[in-house]
């Protein structure tokens, strides 16, 4: 374990596994440490990190107070785990799609002329 020969150049690479979707990535220890510091000691892949940040920001906006990140991570972890039936990439992509769709519902509806893909129900599952 000679970790300090050339410490200005050290690039310790370790395998990190996403706490949410299980995606494995090789990262520098520094990067892993930074992510863990941000997400309550858990390492998240880029996609899940984005989602958790987004979640935390939403909670903050609603006036949830501090400590939001840990909750947001926990929420995203269980969200991802609930989707465990499909392969990781599909799961996450799917989850992201749902999330984006939910967000776009909050915006004024954009209508494109010609093809209307739904037109039937406004029941897109608002949670609150
Ligand atoms: Zn992930």
TrEMBL record:
Pfam families noted in UniProt: DUF1677
Region (Disordered): 103-128
Sequence ranges of Basic and acidic residues compositional bias: 103-118
InterPro entries, sorted: DUF1677_pln
Domain of life: Eukaryota
Protein name: DUF1677 family protein
Organism name: Zingiber officinale (Ginger)
């Amino acid at each position: 374990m000679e970790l300090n020969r050339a410490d200005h150049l050290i690039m310790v690479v370790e395998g990190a596994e996403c706490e949410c979707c299980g995606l494995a990535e090789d990262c520098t220890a520094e990067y892993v440490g930074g992510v863990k510091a941000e997400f309550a000691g858990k390492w998240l892949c880029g996609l899940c990190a984005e989602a958790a940040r987004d979640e935390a920001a939403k909670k903050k906006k609603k006036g949830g107070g501090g400590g939001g990140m840990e909750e947001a991570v926990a929420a995203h972890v269980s969200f991802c785990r609930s989707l465990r039936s499909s392969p990781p990439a599909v799961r996450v992509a799917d989850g992201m799609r749902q999330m984006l769709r939910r967000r776009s519902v909050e915006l004024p509806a954009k209508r494109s002329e010609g093809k209307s893909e739904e037109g039937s129900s406004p029941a897109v599952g608002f949670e609150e």
